């Protein structure tokens, strides 16, 4: 969706007459049914007059076209400014110009990352040239009119109109950003004439209406090149081979999708139910590849940002296929998506769906499951009700069935049983279900899975981190000081009787689970859900304990520190709803290991109970 598509002369006049803010505000209201915030209006009124000056200095024909605020589908990202027209050789061109009001920036660790003042403090963000280049790649990979019509040449740059370049040592021009700068040059406050020359060279002859229309109305679907890239990353990769009921679930979805070409009025929702380690993500990634190959417009959804980033890195690795990232979305991406916009949406870890996204305005009567079903002809949900770990998690089987019924979607169900994590030990999962009270059946722990209850957290660190290069995880039984300043992470996870203290995982490292600098940090449930590692060490806090008199697990409300996840207190005679959330948390943590899981219990009685259950 594009908020503004006018000739360059109309754009300059709207600036000259001080109407640009009003025009954009009205267009947003009419096209998106949204009210523009004061900050957004002020941003337009600060940046767009600077671009009008550049356009006037560019010497263009009056019918070059200006496109403002192109919202990238199923994202919250918008391209600030595009100018379209023909050059002196009569070639069709469009130039993306990313506008920034920055005044200074500094170097930062990470490929294409800088720091600048945003939202009241210095923050890490992407380099403006990287951002402009990524928007260009998105259009070339998803806008059908652009990737099928190679007569339209797309270029990109960034304009920092308030930023005075440091002539001696400008951080934004550091050699580490060389590749991005070559693809998308950077223009500063006093290089506006250079930008004007570049625009003149690109679109001086005007006649941009046809080009602008192609960009605005191009159908959004993955290009053949992108489909082939995904296929090459998955096909032949032994890690993604489908076994037994995984294959059944895979073929079930494809069979249902094959029907929709003839049944365009019918919706279908598919529940694929399976516990930890049943291969849900393997099925999902194979489905993505095959559906794209069949010319479906599909996206892969994960509510957990950390899991999404690990999936992307696992798939992309160290290759240059960064465009694949755009096929992976968060669950809050479909608030305003039209009915049946996508052919298929695949939602992994669907039990983590929420009523609404962070900082999102709630649409009455809708939750994230509603939006996913509404936005697609076929919706696929991978669900495990026993991994619900917060009162905010609403994506249960029951809720998904209810939302599908409201929208008239035909519901299908597939169940997964085979275990591919925990050394393929279904016995370990059965034992864990028994000791955590999901099952009344007594189970002896046997098989190849390496499980051990250790006597102190230092032993846990030595065995898991130092000897086996694994990761430490813990329940939310310690406060998390997220407002600490400086680069040192606070030592929040403390066990004073053992003189033990480590920080929670670095919130700035989404890839904490695989980053070498994060080995001596403790992973939180919100970071690790959906992930897998060879070995994990789990610290069970005092939020979960054991009462030997009643021979039962107990949950201590005062020791559960995740206030946002904590449900209401139980009424008299009612089971505490926190009980299921806490044991779900520890079941999830204790099933992250592929080869082994070692445990330390802060509650001594619980540690003894697990040892006896293990050794009986």
From TrEMBL:
Pfam families: SLFN-g3_helicase. InterPro entries: P-loop_NTPase, SLFN_3-like_DNA/RNA_helicase. Signal peptide: none annotated. Residues 267-603 form the Schlafen group 3-like DNA/RNA helicase domain. It comes from the Bacteria. This is ATP/GTP-binding protein.
């Amino acid at each position: 969706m594009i908020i503004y598509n006018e000739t360059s002369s109309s754009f300059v006049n709207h600036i000259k007459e001080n109407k640009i803010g009003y025009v954009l505000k009205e267009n947003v209201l009419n096209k998106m049914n949204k009210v523009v915030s004061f900050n957004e209006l002020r941003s337009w009124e600060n940046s767009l007059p600077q671009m009008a000056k550049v356009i006037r200095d560019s010497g263009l024909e009056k019918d070059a076209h200006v496109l403002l605020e192109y919202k990238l589908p199923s994202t919250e990202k918008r391209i600030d400014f595009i100018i379209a027209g023909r050059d002196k050789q009569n070639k069709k061109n469009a130039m993306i110009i990313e506008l920034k009001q920055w005044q200074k920036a500094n170097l930062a660790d990470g490929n294409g990352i800088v720091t600048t003042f945003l939202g009241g403090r210095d923050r890490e963000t992407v380099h403006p040239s990287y951002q402009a280049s990524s928007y260009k790649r998105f259009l070339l990979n998803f806008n059908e009119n652009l990737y099928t019509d190679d007569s339209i040449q797309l270029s990109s740059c960034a304009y920092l109109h308030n930023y005075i370049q440091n002539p001696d040592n400008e951080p934004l021009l550091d050699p580490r950003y060389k590749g991005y700068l070559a693809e998308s040059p950077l223009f500063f406050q006093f290089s506006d004439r250079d930008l004007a020359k570049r625009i003149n060279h690109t679109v001086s002859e005007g006649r941009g209406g046809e080009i602008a229309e192609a960009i605005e109305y191009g159908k959004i679907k993955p290009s053949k090149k992108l489909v082939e890239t995904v296929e090459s990353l998955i096909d032949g990769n032994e890690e993604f081979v489908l076994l037994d009921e995984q294959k059944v679930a895979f073929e079930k979805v494809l069979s249902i999708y094959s029907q929709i070409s003839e049944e365009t009025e019918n919706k279908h929702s598919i529940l694929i139910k399976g516990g930890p380690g049943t291969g849900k993500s393997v099925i999902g990634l194979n489905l993505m590849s095959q559906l794209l190959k069949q010319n479906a417009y599909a996206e892969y959804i994960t509510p957990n940002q950390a899991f999404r980033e690990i999936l992307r890195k696992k798939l992309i690795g160290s290759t240059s296929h960064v465009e694949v990232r755009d096929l992976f979305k968060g669950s809050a991406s479909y608030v305003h998506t039209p009915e049946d916009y996508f052919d298929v949406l695949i939602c992994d870890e669907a039990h983590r769906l929420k009523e609404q996204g962070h900082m999102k305005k709630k649409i009455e009567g809708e939750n994230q499951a509603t939006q996913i079903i509404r936005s697609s002809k076929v919706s696929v949900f991978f669900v495990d009700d026993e991994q619900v770990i917060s009162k905010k998690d609403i994506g249960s089987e029951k809720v998904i069935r209810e939302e599908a019924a409201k929208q008239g979607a035909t519901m299908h169900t597939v169940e997964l049983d085979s275990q591919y994590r925990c050394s393929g030990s279904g016995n370990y999962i059965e034992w864990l279900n028994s000791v955590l009270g999901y099952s009344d059946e007594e189970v002896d722990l046997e098989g190849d899975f390496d499980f051990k209850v250790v006597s102190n957290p230092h032993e846990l660190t030595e065995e898991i981190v130092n000897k086996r290069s694994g990761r430490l995880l813990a329940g939310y039984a310690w406060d998390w000081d997220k407002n600490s300043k400086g680069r040192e992470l606070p030592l929040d996870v403390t066990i004073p009787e053992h003189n033990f203290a480590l920080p929670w995982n670095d919130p700035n490292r989404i890839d904490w689970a695989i980053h070498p600098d994060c080995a001596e940090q403790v992973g939180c449930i919100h970071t690790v859900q959906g992930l897998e590692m060879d070995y994990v060490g789990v610290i069970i806090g005092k939020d979960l304990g054991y009462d030997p008199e009643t021979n039962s697990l107990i949950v201590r409300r005062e020791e559960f520190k995740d206030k946002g996840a904590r449900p209401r207190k139980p009424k008299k005679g009612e089971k505490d709803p926190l009980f299921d959330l806490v044991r779900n948390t520890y079941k999830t943590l204790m099933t992250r290991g592929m080869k082994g899981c070692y445990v330390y219990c802060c509650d001594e009685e619980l540690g003894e109970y697990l040892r006896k259950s293990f050794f009986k």
